[in-house]
Design a protein that fits this description.
Blueprint lengths: L2 H20 L6 H13 L3 H10 L8 H14 L3 H12 L22 H20 L3 E5 L11 E7 L6 H7 L3 H6 L1 E6 L2 E4 L2 E3 L4 H18 L2 E11 L1 H11 L7 E5 L9 H9 L3 E7 L5 H14 L3 E6 L10 H13 L2
Parallel strand pairs: 2-3, 2-6, 6-7, 7-8, 8-9
Antiparallel strand pairs: 1-3, 4-5
Helix pairs in contact: 3-4, 4-5, 5-6
Length: 339
């Protein structure tokens, strides 16, 4: 075999391996997402882009995420037209993106481009159209051994975070005490921010109205012990939960909120009134939550007014759910009940 033949053979072998990598098959979207995530961490953006391009139609239920991630890797490579092409691909198929998806500094170079501005306009049109028919939703789960003829049950009203929904939230917010002892009401906002995601804080008055309506529906249909009602939630859901308490919208006796911002109604006067009603609660947060300093300010008000509270900071993570969230919520429920 000549030297030239050896070189050609090596090139062919490399090309074959390269082609196999490009056409790598994944048994599930989760498998592909994990692989793409590892490429992101290794900053192998070109490889991630090639795989995402070859799999855009492979998982149609996840086109939003795949097109967005493809735009991200092209953006990392400063291939701005290719990034716009990826976003347009989704929009042309009536798949649109979260209202907050393009707020990060990463997207600043794009915002000078007319094509990108047009994409944002199209995206907002989709969101506004979805908002026209959006309605709040409610999922009520009963505890083990539930018997409505036998007794009344404590109620836990659980509010999802911003850019989320009932189904996603119930997978992570399910402490043992809640599942075993409480009627649990997962309430979903009607305020649309994405194709299947909602928030509370875009219109807090609408949010409070929908939570009160959900509560009224629950007490009509279920044997709720109105002397033991707890409300809680994550992020925007935590804000809405605190608003409900501070405005005394429903007879809540305790709260468990994770990584909340400061509600509009948070004041010394409203905290004192909540204390007089016997409200107790827990603020959970994380060490790298960007709102930690604000949460500490809120805790100081709780302290000076005398409202019984717990403040728990989980180290080494950001604005997200701690791995032991179920344990922390159970402890918070115990604190509320231990009057």
């Amino acid at each position: 075999m000549t030297k030239r033949s050896i070189v050609l053979l090596l090139v062919m072998c490399v090309g074959l391996a390269f082609g196999q990598e490009e056409t790598k098959e994944f048994e599930s979207y989760q498998e592909m997402r994990g692989y793409i995530g590892s490429l992101f961490q290794q900053q192998k953006y070109e490889k991630a882009a090639r795989i995402l391009e070859n799999h855009l139609d492979r998982f149609p239920d996840h086109l939003e995420a795949n097109a967005y991630n493809l735009a991200l890797v092209h953006g990392r490579l400063k291939q701005y037209q290719e990034a716009i092409k990826a976003l347009r691909y989704a929009l042309d198929r009536d798949v649109w993106f979260n209202k907050y998806a393009f707020g990060a500094e990463f997207w600043e170079p794009f915002k000078k481009m007319e094509e990108f501005k047009n994409l944002l306009d199209r995206n907002e049109t989709f969101r506004q159209e979805a908002q026209k028919s959006a309605k709040p939703d409610l999922l009520v789960l009963t505890p083990k051994g539930y018997n409505k003829e036998e007794r009344k049950y404590p109620l836990f009203v659980a509010l999802h975070g911003g850019s989320s929904n009932i189904e996603n939230f119930r997978k992570v917010w399910k402490p043992k005490k809640m599942e075993e002892e409480f009627i649990t009401a997962y309430v979903q906002s009607s305020l649309v921010v994405g194709m299947d995601s909602y928030t509370w804080t875009e219109d807090i008055e609408t949010a409070k109205k929908e939570i009160v309506e959900a509560y009224n529906e629950i007490v009509k249909k279920y044997p709720v012990d109105e002397k033991e009602i707890i409300i809680g939630g994550f992020s925007a859901g935590g804000v809405a939960a605190l608003e409900i308490i501070l405005c005394n919208s429903i007879p809540v006796h305790g709260f468990v909120v994770l990584c909340p911002a400061k509600p509009e109604s948070f004041s010394d006067e409203n905290i004192k009134k909540a204390k007089e009603r016997g409200v107790r609660g827990t603020i959970l947060t994380t060490e790298m939550d960007p709102r930690l300093s604000v949460q500490k300010e809120m805790v100081e008000v709780l302290k000076t007014t005398g409202l019984q509270y717990q403040f728990v900071v989980t180290p080494n993570i950001g604005h997200w759910f701690p791995e032991d969230l179920d344990v922390k919520i159970d402890e918070a429920i115990h604190h509320i009940r231990n009057r």
